[in-house]
Amino acid sequence: MNACIPVPLAESAHAALPSWSFTLNGQAVAVHCAADQRLLTLLREHFMLVGAKPGCEVGRCGACMVWLDGRPANSCLLMAWQLEGRQVTTIEGLSDAPQSAPVVDALAQCGGVQCGYCSAGMCMGLAYLYQQPGMDAPTASALMCGHLCRCTGYGGIQRAIDSLFPASTSAA
Predict the structure, then answer these.
(1) Per DSSP, which regions of the chain are E strands?
(2) 75-106 burial, b if ≥16 CB within 10 A, otherwise e?
(3) The model's pTM
(4) Does residue 135 form part of some domain?
(5) The domain spanning residue 158 has which CATH number?
(6) The last residue of a domain, from among 93, 122, 151
(7) Rounded Cα distance, 58 and 161, in Å
(8) How many Å apart are CA 149 and CA 152, to the nearest integer?
(9) By the 8 A CB rule, do 165 and 134 touch?
(10) Cα within 13 Å of Cα(90), Cβ side
(11) Is residue 148 within 8 Å of 55, Cβ to Cβ?
């Protein structure tokens, strides 16, 4: 297996690269890198946060989902220059947050997790939707269409969505 280990740059090389400051999981951070460095790469190789996974790398699978300023975003499509002054939350930062517990429980109890490759992105997407007032299962399912899973066949994921967003019981 070929591990990717970042090599520290010499001080003179750091001076040649711009610095980008942002908040990562509640902590102020700064990184020296090219403006077009992808957030996904920064997370995995610089910050050693490997919850966001490289999948399609064109924003179609959701495996690299993070929150940018509290909203879902694919980290494979975000460049370093777009992070300046922003807030990034990864699955590692969300793991102890109260809004993630019902989502994690629903996916586990409903058989929505198998290999786990897409799980972080699924949790990020569903946890965001779970916070939205008035969200229902059909809408949540439609909004989760950008999250691909190659293992479950989506039955367990749909059952988790149905349990998280029960049908309204109010009379019309």
Answers:
(1) 19-24, 27-32, 65-68, 71-74, 87-89
(2) bbebebeebeebebbbbbbbeeeeebeebbeb
(3) 0.85
(4) yes
(5) 1.10.150.120
(6) 93
(7) 25
(8) 6
(9) no
(10) 21
(11) yes
What tens digit of pLDDT does each residue of 4-47 get? 444 455 554 556 899 999 999 999 999 999 999 999 999 999 99
Question: How far apart are alpha carbons 63 and 51 in whole angstroms?
Answer: 9
User: Six-digit token pair at 58?
Assistant: 């064109």
Task: Write the CA distances from 97 to 52, 100, 107, integer angstroms.
Answer: 17, 6, 16
Residue 64 and residue 52: Cα distance in Å, rounded?
Answer: 4
Helices then strands, counting H and E runs in the chain, come out as: 7, 5
Task: Check the CA dihedral 157-163-164-169 and report its sign.
Answer: positive
Give the pair of three-digit tokens for residue 163. 């349990």
Q: Is residue 44 part of a domain?
A: yes
Are the C-beta atoms of residues 150 and 90 closer than 8 Å to each other? no
Neighbours of 6 (CB within 10 A): 11
Q: Closest by alpha carbon to 137, among 107, 104, 165, 108? A: 165
115 band by pLDDT with thresholds 50, 70 and 90 = confident
